[in-house]
Amino acid sequence: MSDSIVIIPTYNEIENVERMIRKVFSLDFPFHVLIIDDGSPDGTGNVVKKLQEEFPEKLHLEERKGKLGLGTAYIHGFKWALQRKYEYIFEMDCDFSHNPEDLIRLREACENGADMAIGSRYITGVNVVNWPMGRVLMSYFASRYVRIITGIEIHDYTAGFKCYHRRVLETIDFNKIKFVGYAFQIEMKFTAVKHGFNVVEVPIIFTDRTAGTSKMSSKIFREAVIGVIQMKINSWFRKYKQI
To answer: Which family does it belong to (predicted)?
Structure first.
């Protein structure tokens, strides 16, 4: 039984999902994988089911009906992982923009005292490959904007590559997490810090997908930028349990 589970939400990732699963299982540490598939019409879920025959103890699949949002996918996965007593719970994209090799570095950061380790594109400059300049600037300045509004020094607020120690997810009240899109990533980091958890950033190189279709859009970033103001205001009237 591994103490570490990698949660990967999918929607139409048939070009990437098998390669990603095999890559994670090839690493020197025995990670488990949980795929949360939102009814992919391209057959992503069927590929995972076939691979479960090969990896029956390590590969898990939760299928949902339709696109219900990134945040709800991760919360579904968090609850699933907590029930099964995993100690380290990861978020990762399926498209290889996150290098699976970095899972080990994120886990080591949590073993060495971090409660949440973020795979950060911006802690040592701008480490992004194959993104158009406009998208790089939008992402970079969105995180900078969130830092200004929240007053919390996290350089990559929108990062979706993370390791949580289970105590973080046991403490956060998921019913109070309001965002379901990419702003979910901002809200989870902000909430963890407000609870007093030690959040660290681990430098990574982010490489844009080479297969499949991106789900990111300028609308998603705009929603995150506007929503963070309301998140900050709401925090003034909320009590956070201090660990």
So the answer is: Belongs to the glycosyltransferase 2 family.
